[in-house]
Amino acid sequence: MATESSRTPHGIALVTGATSGIGAEFARQLAKQSYDLVLVARDRPRLETVAAQLREHTHVAVEVIAADLTDAAQRDVVERRLKSEADPITFLVNNAGYGLPQEFSLNSADDEARMLEILATVPLRLSHAVLGGMLSRGTGTVLTVASLAGEAPLGTYAAAKAWAMNFSRWANAHYRSRGVTFTALAPGFVRTEFHSRLGVARASMAPKWMWLDANFVVRSALRSAAHGRAVSIPSVRYRLLWMFMKLAQPLIAVFVARTSRRTATVADKRHDS
């Protein structure tokens, strides 16, 4: 990692879930903004590949930490790095996360608890770990990848993402006057590996016009963070959808409930036959 005398003007950004999708795009764009990087993910070979590419094309210093953030001992390594004053982290991107392909009643409670941990508990712990140093220096940015789904009653993934939205709104209002800003990125559908890992085809999830490129989503998020905004919703189409969702939440809840009842009825009939 860079020394105090050679560190880039922006400092050091730590990105979780940095080997693919939105996380990898954050790493690329932050490197272009002259941030040194600490990349965190479970897969060390993929981490090393991404790090080597970034070093070659951007000439920033890149450190890698292979860690499963739902494992307390491995997460502790990342938390200690966030608390380091020798090479302080000035920008934290909480991006690591995943979804479950089945509905709540079909998943095990342990699987649901692990998803909740990676989407809510882990960002809480990492944000807490980095915050003390940022406050003492009077500057810093914490950006957490949430989802527009977090604004609607759409299952446990959405419920977990709602934590990031509400936490970022509160923390930004509370700490911004002390130089530390918090932003929740709330995209809609983004072209990444996320849905293929769920085993779901994009075409079955949403029409083409609803899909956004990760490059655009990350650029929008970094611009929002630079302006100290608590929530970043990329694209006009999704900002309009967000306004509709705020107004129509009761209707969405009714629609989800009716759809769930119909699905359950069909499943029961199949079971009886």
TrEMBL record:
Transmembrane segments: none
Coiled coil, from the record: none
Single GO MF descriptor: oxidoreductase activity
Keyword Cell inner membrane included in the entry's annotation: no
Cross-referenced SMART domains: PKS_KR
Positions of the Ketoreductase domain: 11-193
Pfam families: adh_short (PF00106)
Keyword line: Oxidoreductase
PANTHER family xref list: NADP-DEPENDENT 3-HYDROXY ACID DEHYDROGENASE YDFG, VERY-LONG-CHAIN 3-OXOOACYL-COA REDUCTASE
Family label: Belongs to the short-chain dehydrogenases/reductases (SDR) family.
Annotated protein name in UniProt: Ketoreductase domain-containing protein
Organism: Rhodoglobus vestalii
Lineage of the organism: Bacteria, Bacillati, Actinomycetota, Actinomycetes, Micrococcales
